[in-house]
Write a structure and sequence with these properties.
mainly beta; four-stranded antiparallel β-sheet; 0% helix; 40% strand
Length: 70
């Protein structure tokens, strides 16, 4: 994301997510099963805005995207 301050990066074997300081989540990767949550299963080679925000994010809080909660 251009001019965004990244607060968190989550790496998986086939997909990557970043969360900005404003709480927006972007993802890229294989997206084989729709893991990016953007309504399709097409691979994304550049970061794409995911339809989710994470409210109250600050550098000391840990918030994980739904794909990474176990």
């Amino acid at each position: 994301p251009e001019n965004a301050v990244i607060q968190q990066i989550t790496l998986g074997p086939e997909n990557t997510f970043v969360v900005t300081d404003s709480g927006y989540m972007y993802g890229c990767g294989v997206n084989r099963y729709g893991e990016l949550g953007i309504g399709d299963t097409k691979p994304k080679i550049s970061f794409t805005l995911c339809p989710m925000t994470i409210e109250g994010l600050s550098p000391v809080q840990e918030k994980k995207p739904p794909c990474c909660i176990q």
